Amino acid sequence: MQPLSENTMNVVSATVPVLEIHGEAIVARMYERLLQDAGIRSFFNLSHQSGSAPQHKALTHAILAYARNIREPQVLTAAIERIAQKHVALKIEAAHYEAVGNSLLAAISDVLGEAASSEVLNAWGEAYWFLAGVLIEREQSVYDEQANLPGGWSGWRDFLITEKRAETSEITSFTLSPVDGAPVPAHRPGQYLTLLLCIDDAASIRRTYSISSAPNGRDFRITVKREAQGKASTWLHDVADTGTILSVGAPAGDFFLDPENTSEVVLLSGGVGLTPMISMLEANANRALPITYVHAARSRSHHAMQELPAQLATRSVVFYEEIDDTEAVDDNTVVHGRLDAQWLADNTHIQSSDYYICGPTGFMQATINGLRSIGVRDERLHYEFFGPASEAL
Predict the structure, then answer these.
(1) 336 falls within a domain
(2) Catalytic residue of the set 66, 97, 143, 192
(3) Apex CA 147: angle with CA 146 and CA 151, to 5°?
(4) Phi and psi at residue 27, to the nearest 5°
(5) What's the pLDDT tens digit per position in 145-192?
(6) Domain span at residue 348?
(7) In the chain, what are the helix, strand and coil shares in percent, each to the nearest 5?
(8) Are residues 34 and 142 in the same domain?
(9) What spatial distance separates the first Cα and last Cα of the chain, rounded to whole Å?
(10) What's the domain count of the chain?
(11) For this structure, is 227 an active site residue?
(12) What is the pLDDT of residues 180-237, one digit of tens each?
């Protein structure tokens, strides 16, 4: 792949101050143009395009990071891998990049007006296609890996819901077994599946859900929280049942328990963010890797799958924001309040442990920033967002 020209790197770097001011407006305009295409629109969760538009903030942050590090793209390796995995999960192909690139350049022109000179647009065009080339190459390699794994597949595969189990009043687990009866690949504990859903004769939608079971070669389990405005989660809870057939993409994702890891592991989750952690715990059942598992929930009645960590983790602690008078509370198993950095400093080995974190954005921000504040190095922090990644991290 031909490297970026010196002039392009200079021009892109020079646009950073402008992007800091107008970046969100450019991204909003880009999505406005892009989502006019029904074929492209099906790839997006439209709830992330409304209100405070978290997807807009996430992409703005990514574009700024690219511009700031245009001369040192290796800084963005982890972010590029995360994006590539998500693109593979959604079945994005090389041909889709043209629509995105055209919408981005048109949005820059729309928002900046005369300041979007031909030199600026040409530089950003070259920079965009350089990054697109990196992503396309990596995504193709992941597609190939998925198809060539024992039990693997490409595209969509039909799965039957063979068990539906309510974990709490708002969280339900679904066991998915392949209709063809053939084996499934051994996913990496922490990865997710993508479902292609056709609801109410509307256009199909794509949603990703973490696998909440260990690899077994036969089936997968996903555990889904009903969201108030969640079209997919509501359908799964209220309509889908045992016997329902779903179109499923192969496991993907860059957040998983490293099989080569030998240091102590600390799993930290909030709410339904426990789902990939359960997969990690089940997968570790025969490895005896020391794992401390800490979960934060609103109350015991909101705590799904609570019996498994006690059985599988070396140590299991839960934080409940709400607790009744009959609840047994102690610092070893049940704590009343919110998880904070001081507790982690006092109860985990911050210099030698690897931390895996998953949950809602607020929980993620507080936990990751808290761990950094007590001296945990970034290379020991591994995390997965439910929804668009926060610009604060």
Answers:
(1) yes
(2) 97
(3) 90
(4) -65, -40
(5) 999 999 999 999 999 999 999 999 999 999 999 999 999 999 999 999
(6) 265-385
(7) 45, 20, 35
(8) yes
(9) 30
(10) 3
(11) no
(12) 999 999 999 999 999 999 887 767 889 999 999 999 999 999 999 999 888 999 999 9
